[in-house]
From TrEMBL:
Record's bilayer topology term: Multi-pass membrane protein
Protein name from the UniProt record: Urea transporter
PANTHER family in the record: UREA TRANSPORTER
Segments traversing the membrane: 21-42, 48-66, 73-93, 99-120, 127-146, 178-201, 208-226, 238-256, 261-278, 290-308
Compartmental location: Cell membrane
Record lineage: Bacteria, Bacillati, Actinomycetota, Actinomycetes, Kitasatosporales
């Protein structure tokens, strides 16, 4: 049956909203709306970059004939969303060059996603945000070399130095850090953005919402216990990878039970430690860790699952549909 033009437009909007939500594994258009509100709360320019970026990534995937089930689940939009927001954050959202490069990056990341999907499929592993990490890392490292692209920013870091600053953590610091960890997944430092995002996660799945809370708590405790600077804990840059790892390893990619809960908490702690290591490695070249700690930690932990019989892969996701359901075989974050 031929879908009317207006109907196709409505379906495309649902796919875009699911793409927004898939940044945190949720194939729900309702959650996508809430996530969009969160980005606009951080700044209207970031909201526009995220929404348009997701739309461009989704449209590029459709144009290139990517499997329809991936497009409908939002799996071709979330990396583009993050790429667009990252370009806005690091290059400045108001520059025409940023707008052009962000649009190009959203198209390129679709191709990178296809390549990563093909390469990782043989091992039964999802791509997660690997395409975003590759594209955004290339941007941050290359941009200072182009005068019409780079509009100022932090200089490349020098040799590795010991952590500096206070390590004391007050009660209100803990609260801000808890929500900022969730906000930093979208590269936003505001605690209230994280609160809105958490509402969106719970709107799609109570298990996912609970694991986001567990991951954030593990990130804060691990960073504090190891003596990370308070400023880094409070702005969420120490703990956001822990949130994603915890969600992925308990309830999203692995079945939620006591074994995967412990597994996820261990992974969240590992990702928190890996973050500063990757920053030290990438910053001298002008790079940024982005969600590399989440990607690397999750892929290593998932690769070990076949040898760990107490852990089970999760069943196909339950979706909150608006007008079109997601195919049952689609894997979140794939």
């Amino acid at each position: 049956m031929r879908i009317p033009r207006t109907g196709r437009g409505g379906l495309f909007a649902v796919h875009v909203l699911r793409g927004q939500a898939q940044v945190q594994f949720m194939p729900s258009a309702v959650t996508g709306v809430i996530f969009t509100v969160a980005l606009f709360a951080a700044g209207w320019q970031y909201g526009l970059y995220g929404l348009i970026g997701t739309a461009l990534g989704t449209a590029t995937a459709q144009l290139l004939g990517v499997d329809r089930s991936r497009v409908s689940a939002g799996l071709e939009g979330f990396n583009a969303c993050l790429v667009a927001v990252a370009f806005a954050v690091f290059l400045g959202p108001g520059h025409p060059s940023t707008m052009v490069l962000a649009a190009g990056g959203c198209a390129v990341v679709t191709v990178v996603t296809a390549a990563a999907t093909t390469l990782l499929r043989g091992w039964g592993l999802p791509t997660l945000t690997l395409p975003f990490c590759l594209t955004a890392s290339a941007m941050t490292i290359a941009a200072p070399g182009f005068e019409r692209v780079w509009h100022g920013g932090p200089a490349a870091a020098g040799p590795i130095r010991a952590a500096e600053g206070s390590v004391a953590l007050a009660v209100d610091d803990v609260g801000r850090a808890f929500f900022a960890n969730i906000a930093q997944i979208f590269l936003m430092p505001q605690w209230y953005v994280g609160l809105i995002l958490l509402v969106g996660i719970f709107a799609a799945s109570r298990t996912a919402g609970a694991m986001a809370c567990v991951g954030s708590a593990v990130g804060v405790v691990t960073a504090w216990a190891l003596g990370a600077p308070t400023a880094r804990i409070v702005d969420g840059t120490m703990g956001y990878n822990a949130v994603l790892v915890a969600m992925a390893l308990c309830g999203v990619l692995l079945a939620a039970d006591r074994w995967s809960l412990g597994f996820a908490m261990a992974g969240a702690a590992a990702a928190t430690v890996l973050g500063p290591a990757l920053n030290a490695l990438l910053e001298p070249a002008g790079g940024h860790s982005f969600t590399w700690p989440f990607v690397l930690t999750t892929l290593v932990f998932l690769a070990s699952v076949p040898a760990l019989p107490r852990l089970r892969r999760a069943a196909p996701p339950t979706v909150l549909p608006l007008t079109e359901p997601v195919a049952s075989g689609v894997v979140l974050g794939a």
